[in-house]
Amino acid sequence: MRVFEIFPAGLIAAVFFQAAQTASADTNEIHLDVLLTGQGNFTNASIIRHNPAYIVVDYPGGIINVADSNLPPDLQKQFGYSPANADSFLKQEKASQKAAYDQFAAQHAADAAYLASLNGTNRIIRITSIGDEIRILQVAATIDGRDQEILIRNLPSSVRDFVNRYNQLQANVPAFAEKVQYDTKAADRADTLASVVGGRDRGYENWPVTRRYRAKLMVLNAKDEGETLQQMQDHLKQMTDDAPQLAAVIAYPSSEFYGTRQVWVCTGVP
């Protein structure tokens, strides 16, 4: 029996991100209090990107593309505007976007055909992330090396709870480790300075005592945080070891589709 992994959705977004990459010719921002163009006037505007055909403007009303042909002469000169170069760039951009979309469409068709061939056959699926749920829970799967966006019914609440807690802990551990590192360095500095004689306010004779007390508290706090981090890391390791069992379900792809995505049906846990 084969095991499939479930991952966060994002294949469609990746296609459009790839296409958008062709628009990035220069990422040095230019800020203008007022930008006057043939497409309108923009205040407090930043030119966040430009290419041979258009600029990308970020302003309080949103983000907009402004064709170089609509720019004032000084900006056209600054960006080296050429109608021929702009036309060539737009054709290349359109071709690149079409190629990316065609590639996605072909992969989507192949994935759909493959999933259809699995109709009614149970699989052990390991859930590694939980997506949105409107009427049916949305997930993404890697099946035989293919990323799939699917929907699943009847996912046990115990599996959903485990996966959500596991993902949250995976996100929390690195963030807390960074905090512990910062607090430990701060405590070490404070402890070192507390032992230095001099540099105190002579009008406040208790300052050396107060400084040592505060440094001691910082050291104790950093130690407590380090112990907490170790507990979190141990818990994460345990959950990682448990994931193949506690995040697994038995499911089969049905003949039901919601939009363009196939609906899987969970029948239980292994």
Q: Note the main sheet.
A: 6 strands, mixed, barrel
Question: What is the total domain count?
Answer: 2
What count of helical segments does DSSP give? 5
Tell me the number of strands.
Answer: 10
Low-confidence stretches: 1-26
Question: What Rg, in angstroms, do the CA atoms define?
Answer: 28 Å
Question: Structural class of the secondary structure composition?
Answer: alpha+beta
Q: What is the succession of H and E elements?
A: EHEEEEHHEEEHHEE
What's the N-to-C terminus distance? 11 Å
**Main sheet: strand order:** 1-6-9-10-8-7
Strand content: 25-35%
Task: Give a topology summary.
Elements: E1 3-7, H1 11-20, E2 30-37, E3 40-50, E4 54-59, E5 62-67, H2 73-78, H3 83-117, E6 123-126, E7 137-143, E8 146-153, H4 157-194, H5 207-246, E9 248-258, E10 261-268
Parallel strand pairs: 1-6, 8-10
Antiparallel strand pairs: 1-7, 2-3, 3-4, 4-5, 6-9, 7-8, 9-10
In short:
The chain is an alpha+beta fold and 270 residues long.
Task: Describe the fold and architecture.
The protein has 270 residues and is α+β, with helices and mostly antiparallel strands. It has two domains: 29-92, SH3 type barrels; 118-270, no CATH class. 48% of the residues lie in helices and 27% in strands. It is built from five helices and ten strands, in the order βαββββααβββααββ. It has helices at 11-20, 73-78, 83-117, 157-194, 207-246, and strands at 3-7, 30-37, 40-50, 54-59, 62-67, 123-126, 137-143, 146-153, 248-258, 261-268. The strands form two sheets. The protein has a six-stranded mixed barrel with strand order 1-6-9-10-8-7. Strands 2-3-4-5 form a four-stranded antiparallel beta sheet, with no helix packed on it. α1 (11-20) runs antiparallel to α3 and α4 (157-194) packs antiparallel against α5 (207-246). The termini are close together.
